[in-house]
Amino acid sequence: MLGDGNLLSLDDRGRLKRVEGYPFHHVSSIMMEIENRRNIVQKTYHPKPDQLSREWVLVDAEGQNLGRIASGIARILIGKNKPQFTPGVDVGDFVIVINAEKIAVTGKRLDQKMYYHHSGYPGGLKKINLRNQLATFPNRVIESAVWGMVPHNRYGRKLMRKLRIYKGPNHPHAAQQPKTITFD
Length: 184
Prior knowledge:
four-stranded parallel β-sheet, single chain, 8 strands
């Protein structure tokens, strides 16, 4: 029974019905109140540009598992670690990754995981395994893993522009005073 004084009940289909014996004006006012409660719309929080504070985060990839570090980086880029997170709104931080060449993987992935790209010409499919990719372009390994964890649209491309990956321990972003984060 719903409403004050049990004036309303639900029928077998879950619809409101009036209980007999009560004046109609009591029942109609309660039904209007219930309808008003149903029509309350909760607004999605949308942060204003002056409410956003973007920070720079430094991640050391030495000895870190590729998938775990990529998912942590994607979370920071999207902004899911912040209380003002709103889907589709860029509230994430800038991420600097150092020591990309010293990333860790398990099993036989160094030899069995392949990266593919195409030259654009017929028969131009190229492939390279993870071991060779780490030796030549280690930043592409982390970039590819993070790209697989962000949305594949304009929003995702905008997020990827906030990611900076460096092969060794040096980076040119000391002026941004990045704070160091480790993923456990």
